[in-house]
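Lecture notes, unit on protein representations.

Consider one protein chain, 365 amino acids long.
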Amino acid sequence: MPIEPVRIGLIGCGTISPAYLKAASTFDVLAFVGCADIDPTAAQRTEAEYGIPSMSVDSLLASDDVEVVLNLTIPAAHTSINMAALDAGKHAYCEKPFGLDVDAGAHVLEKAEGAGLRLGCAPDTFLGGGHQSVRHLIDEGAIGRVVAGTAFMMNHGHESWHPNPAFYYHAGGGPLFDMGPYYLTALVHALGPVKRVAAITGRALEQRTITSKPRAGETIDVEVDTHTAGTLEFHSGAIVSVVMSFDVWHHSNRWIELHGSDASLSAPDPNTFGGKIRINEGREWHERALTHGYTENMRSIGLADMCIGIRTGRAHRCDGQLAQHVLEIMQAFGTSSTTDTHVELASRPDRPAPLPLDLAHGELD
């Protein structure tokens, strides 16, 4: 039975918005009815390219036609826009991270629960065929009980390619808050929640020079740590080492490897939807076929999943509790480093439900 489309208002028409809008056409449940940005010309460009009416942020929030606010603003604005959406009686789905700190995330969760509204948060890449297949193989026992793992995201920062990279070095940025959500969400999806964190963090440079246009030559003050190394102990018993860095020129480590009692698994890049999976049961790696679809760039799949949940009443997978747990993990890296302690986590969400096998393209249940 067809589901009535959910009417979406987009706030934040920047670099990531085209990926959402292009993929959204896959899902009949998504209907964009308005877009807004603090820079009106950005919203006007979105209107011209995608046919979505542009308006002011206040007008979008006040519109009775908008049911869900898609919040694609910069990290520092995620909490305020989420709260404004909830105050206006609308569900909210935001880009990662869920907030700049755990207290901010908890405030948003409390507001949504009290209002009976839904919260969603990127990343949704774990819903792609690559990491859904990883989850399926683990659940089927392909490598036995997972006991250890590694996760590496290391490069030399975004100032060489991003047109406006300064916010990556301010609160809510850095390698952990920028890229960590992809890796940590994929790990929690595969292994369940994290119990405690031990970490050391630091930064190689206090300033960086932009080499990308149009701001080439400008200097950025580095206000966050740009190298983080930590160990996660999961409630399942698995122990995973994680390194996130903007201080590394090149490396040859795999994105995520998980080591079980029977075999080892090499997982694809969690910032993509597809990729290759390899399993080593002896001394050689063998590629395994993906068990799930959605292997192209499907940003908005998490939003679509939430909107189906709004219409049907079922739980959605990229929910606020999961995002808050990932936020708490990230904050724990810094706390552990500055206090020289293991940090026990307060949150313990359920693993998101896996997607069923053999879904038709455009289906999610």
